[in-house]
Amino acid sequence: ANDRPPVLGVMGRETGQVRLRVVDDTRMTTLCSFVESFTQPNTLVYTDEYQSYNDLRRVRETVCHGVHEWARDDDGDGWFETHTNTSEGLWTGLRNFLRPFRGVSKHFLHGYVAIHELRVNLKAISPTFIAALVQLHSF
Questions:
Q1: Cα 20 to chain center, whole Å?
Q2: Counting CB atoms within 10 angstroms of each CB, which of 9, 14, 92, 135 has the fewest?
Q3: pLDDT of residue 73
Q4: Contacts of 36 (CB under 8 A, 6+ apart)
């Protein structure tokens, strides 16, 4: 409705690896196939209560933002295992990355999102990485 293409993302809590994609919609088929393509079958997935996750073929834990639940400690050990803070931080990072560009055309958004994904996954741009890029694009 607002002409902004949705961006889907998954992030490994243990690996810190990110996969981001610009998609046409957030329907159940799109969302579930995205999550399933970038996670292992035995992965425990943490989401909010969004209905499009309902057909996900992964074990899923949810928090219900609709009732102001942001994290949950199911076993009472003081560690709030069920939360979506990892992905919320990912979206903050993407917004902060895009902000200096002062508006990105939706036709080029996928490229900016890919650069941010690479940036998160690499953690640092090393001379070795730059050399590899230059070598790939040399004539």
A1: 5
A2: 14
A3: 86
A4: 56, 57, 58
pLDDT number for residue 134: 85
Extract the tokens encoding 91: 């979206």
Residue keyed to tokens 């992905």: 87
Rounded Cα distance between 137 and 99, Å, is: 28
Q: How confident is the model at residue 139 (pLDDT cuts 50, 70, 90)?
A: low
- Position 95, amino acid: R
Q: Please name the helix (run of DSSP H) or strand (run of DSSP E) that holds residue 61, with its range, or none.
A: strand 59-62
Name the DSSP class of 60: E
For residue 34, which of 43, 44, 23, 42 has the smallest C-alpha distance? 23
- Using the structure block, give the residue that is written with the tokens 């900016």: 112
- Residue-level pLDDT at 85: 80
Tell me which amino acid residue 112 is: Y
Q: Say how far residue 82 (Cα) sits from the centre of its chain.
A: 17
How many of the other CB atoms lie within 10 Å of CB of 93? 14
Dihedral class, residue 32 (left if φ above 0, else alpha if ψ from -120 to 50, else beta):
alpha
User: Which residues fall within 8 angstroms of residue 40, CB to CB, at 6 or more apart?
Assistant: none
- Write the single-letter amino acid at 119: R
